[in-house]
Amino acid sequence: MVYKSIADKLCIRLNSSAYNIGAPLPAEMKLAEEFGVSRMTIRRAINLLVASGMVVRRHGSGTYVARKDVYHETSSLTGMVEGVQRQGKNVVSKVLDFEVIPAPPSIACQLRLRADERLYFSRRVRYVDGKPLLVEDSYMPVKLFRNLSIAHLEGSKLNYIEKECNIIIGGNNEGLIPVLADKQIAALMEVPEKTPLLRITSLFYSVDGEYLNYSVMYRNANVYQVEYCLKRIYA
């Protein structure tokens, strides 16, 4: 339905850095002109946002942003847990699978390991305020993390790597591809099949040049947005 599509677009807009909590929404007439629909359609779209708690109507004043979904603005390397917890949100990680496996050739290539070298494989779902935010498949070399456990994966991997293993993280290479949720991922994310998701590959490396972790993540872009603030470096 048109009004639901508009509500989704407004949700993404309100979660961006352009809107702070307490900021007013544009007038219904202005939004109707922007989207080329009637004021009634805009009102139904806003009603959905009111019902979700994202915006609130104030009689005689207007409509205002009441809360934001998960939003992460970054100019430095920050873990998802760190970024989300700073917003006062509750993060829970549920580990669905954890085992030691021989490195598949494609993963060994990413981590610069020999084929069949031992890896920890884990699959976990990250929940924010009770909503599934992402599904993550992760691969970590056993030789670097001898005592990795489910308890560590239920917390922050970055904290484990830096604080317990005393490894200084040098950076992270990420790749983003839009995909449609298959049956398995859709069930874990609690969304319909073929829902648009972001498939993100992540490769962490240390300051010494060792590759620490390779992850494949699926994120629901409707409830999680990231803005990267990148600076140009001149030689």
From TrEMBL:
The keyword Transport does not apply. CDD domains: WHTH_GntR. The keyword Acetylation does not apply. It holds the Pfam family UTRA. Keywords: DNA-binding, Transcription, Transcription regulation. GO terms for molecular function: DNA binding; DNA-binding transcription factor activity. InterPro entries: Bact_HTH_transcr_reg, Chorismate_lyase_/UTRA_dom_sf, DeoR_HTH, Tscrpt_reg_HTH_GntR, UTRA, WH-like_DNA-bd_sf, WH_DNA-bd_sf. SUPFAM superfamilies: Chorismate lyase-like, Winged helix' DNA-binding domain. GO terms for biological process: negative regulation of DNA-templated transcription. PROSITE patterns: HTH_GNTR (PS50949). Residues 1-68 form the HTH gntR-type domain. This is GntR family transcriptional regulator. It comes from Affinibrenneria salicis. The lineage of its organism: Bacteria, Pseudomonadati, Pseudomonadota, Gammaproteobacteria, Enterobacterales.
